[in-house]
Amino acid sequence: MGSVTGGCPVNRRLQRAVLDGGFGFYALQVFTTAILILAANTAYQDFPRLSAILARHKLTPHQYLNRGDWLVFSNGIITLAVVAAALLVIFDAEVSRLIQLCVVGVFTAFTLSQAGTVRHWLRTKEPRWQRLVAINSIGAATTGIVLVVIRSRRVPDGTPTNTYAFSTARNSTRTRRSSTDPNGPRGDPVKRPCSRVGFT
Fold it and tell me: Using CA of residue 13, residue 17, residue 22, residue 24, what is the dihedral sign?
């Protein structure tokens, strides 16, 4: 996926060699672009909702709860757009450097979501919870192993930035929670259902 000499990504070179630059090659480029657009759209849909949920629990600024003219969480969208633009400028829009951020970010999210789901099943113990715990535990272990392998390799610069950003975000949310919640960072969260945030 990284770029090579000439600025052409490896996957495009392989596709051109296999498909000989015909219709299949260009069709694959269109499909790849569509997948990337879908991935970006997912981020712009879900990050504002997530930041609003965290704001309800006093883990992010309360401004993320504000809705814009289109009844969406505009501040979350603006924040994501600014951060994305900054990353493009900082890394000169080089695929070989940005892909490291993507890979680490994706597998970190997968691991945390699977582990959080395991915790949910252990706490609620809904019907068939043992089976669900086993499935999500396998998922968390698999993506966690991949994440550890990726982080243990010497990769182009960019991956450490993702790790530092994650640590900074985690510490800032803890600091904000402890400064706004009289019970401290481990106090009881606001007793409002998260499922009602951002879904209409």
Answer: negative
Mind listing the pLDDT tens digit for each residue in 79-126? Answer: 999 998 998 999 888 877 888 888 888 888 889 999 999 999 999 999
Structural domain contains residue 143: yes
Residue 198: how many other CB atoms lie within 10 Å: 21
Q: 121: domain range?
A: 94-178
Mean pLDDT of the chain: 77
164 assigned to some structural domain: yes
Distance of CA 128 to the CA centre of its chain: 29
DSSP H or E run through 93:
none
Using a CB cutoff of 8 Å and minimum separation of 24, what contacts does 166-171 make? 166/108
| Whether the model pTM is above 0.85 | no
| Domain tally, the chain | 1
Q: How far apart, in whole angstroms, are the C-alpha atoms of residue 106 and residue 83?
A: 17
pLDDT single digits (tens) 23-47: 888 888 899 889 888 888 888 888 8
Residue 107 maps to a domain: yes
Please check whether residue 97 is in contact with residue 157, taking contact to mean a CB–CB distance below 8 angstroms. Answer: yes
Greatest Cα pair distance, the chain, in angstroms, is: 65
Establish if 73 belongs to a structural domain: no
